[in-house]
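Entry:
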Amino acid sequence: MSLSSYYDLSWNDSHTQCLSRLYSLYFDEIFWEDQLLDIGYNGHPDPTYDLDAGVSQPDFIAYNTDGDVQHISIIDIDATPPENEKELIESELSQLEKYEEISEEMINKFLSLRNKSLSVNHQETVALVTDKTYNNHRDKFKSVVQELGIILWSIKEQDTPLIKKVSGEHASIELNRMLNSGVNVFPDGDDLLYFSRNTDSSLIEFEFIQRLLTYCSRETKREFTFDEVDEIMIRTRPPMLRHIPQNERIEYWKEYVYRLLNDHQLLEQTGSDRYQWKKKRFTSEPRDRKRILSKIKDKLRPGEE
């Protein structure tokens, strides 16, 4: 996939990289010998559920046609002093208990956005950690997940990336069998998702501005409509936030257009749904585009969140 010249900044975001690798086990547009897709599981990143206590957003939902569901969250734990180790792990993992409130109706509301439905039979909560994190805190992790009834997976990041189950039991015998041995991640698994809800917001904003500016330059147009924006963002490779519902993506784009108008002062509104770059040379002169992007990069400091 082609990436912008600035995009090396994005891989400071290890969370999205891990989510992308997880997604490769379920992604139906790739052909790979080791996928949970092969035993009937599908999956989607960044689901959203409206609970009584507020919005719940696991990193991933996986499910099969028998109604076996996993709510998966990636747990990011940095180095911590031994005396705080168990408390930190308990704090992080206890936040996953709210997934027990996710109902069949909520799951189907999310799946309906993808023209799918499911008769839910069984739900499981899964925490995914890197093998380094797991090995550094092995005993504490095992103790806490057993207390909370959570299943624990680890992902090996070096050499050939591999995801395996390290604690707990799945209801599905076949899923247990595959994950006990470990499932190899697709070699280009990093390339499936470059953006997620956890991606540094300044990075998404910077990429948004760069794509919009580049598109207008290539099309030799100074003016554009808001209706064009979403198509630009998901048709430019790699697609930006294509995996989340359009109405949610639109909220991102509204915010960034507003900031281009008011904070960066690069756009002006010419109609109820029309905008144009303040100066024609922004889209006609490569040097001006590069200068604008460099200034915005210095201001936003993408990838340093």
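The mean pLDDT is 88.
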